[in-house]
Design goal:
Elements lengths: L2 E3 L6 E3 L2 E5 L1 E3 L6 E5 L11 E6 L4 E5 L1 E2 L4 E5 L3 E6 L7 E16 L5 E4 L17 E4 L5 E7 L7 E20 L2 E6 L13 H5 L6 E4 L3
Antiparallel strand pairs: 1-4, 2-3, 3-17, 5-16, 6-7, 6-11, 8-9, 9-10, 10-11, 11-15, 12-15, 12-16, 13-15, 14-15, 14-17
Length: 214
């Protein structure tokens, strides 16, 4: 089951563009148990990152720890890395090869989920999260969270996809908070009720969309 709410809520400056927030909720991948609030790059081993290129084809890499607080994936021409607590320490995407059309980050295989609500805590035990936000570099056209986690209250998602209409090369840093999990038996999605969706959207979470300057 899919439930979608896209509603302009707030705008912030990113270069010469501004962004608006809305929300996309889709079916759950798995039932999970939260095990940690402060998750760093070294704690997401197994996470899958798929880059799809404007010239065609794609490449999927598996995340690995690089030291006690850092981790990432690295190919010949592109990489994604993160170090220290994802709540306030950015991810770094770098590409020197063919333009990346989209980047899919699947956190579940890395025993992690994205926590996209900054305040208040929604799902018990999740603490405060951090929605996607660009810190530097070329912003994606859209950034969409999907794979709503069973048992969550609309704040926990399994996947984040960045889409670039004109392709991406260079370096971009962004915030996207993660929490640590263990995976239980798969279960049907528990999508937030319609009454809850406007309240969540009012927090400015979910799908991130760049608008051209008027």
């Amino acid at each position: 089951m899919n439930s979608t709410l896209i509603q302009p809520l707030a705008a912030i400056g990113v270069g010469i563009a501004c962004v608006t927030y809305g929300m996309t909720i889709s079916s759950a991948a798995s039932a999970i148990t939260l095990t940690g609030l402060q998750t760093s790059g070294s704690q997401m081993s197994g996470l899958k990152v798929t880059a799809t290129f404007a010239t065609g084809g794609s490449q999927t890499l598996t995340w690995a720890a690089t030291d006690s607080s850092s981790g990432g994936v690295s190919a010949a021409a592109w990489s994604l890395r993160q170090s220290r607590d994802t709540f306030n320490s950015p991810w770094t995407l770098t590409n020197t090869g063919p333009a990346i059309q989209s980047l899919l980050i699947d956190a579940i295989p890395g025993n992690a989920v994205f926590d996209i609500v900054s305040t208040p805590e929604l799902t018990p035990g999740s603490g405060l999260g951090q929605p996607f936000s660009v810190q530097s570099g070329l912003a994606p056209t859209t950034a969409t969270y999907a794979g709503a986690i069973d048992g969550s209250l609309g704040d926990l998602f399994g996947r984040l996809t960045l889409n670039y209409d004109n392709g991406f090369t260079g370096t971009m840093t962004f915030l996207a908070d993660t929490d640590s999990i263990t995976i239980n038996d798969p279960a049907p999605a528990k999508v937030p009720t319609p009454a809850l969706l406007p309240a969540l959207a009012g927090l400015g979470i979910g799908i991130w969309r760049k608008r051209k300057q008027q």
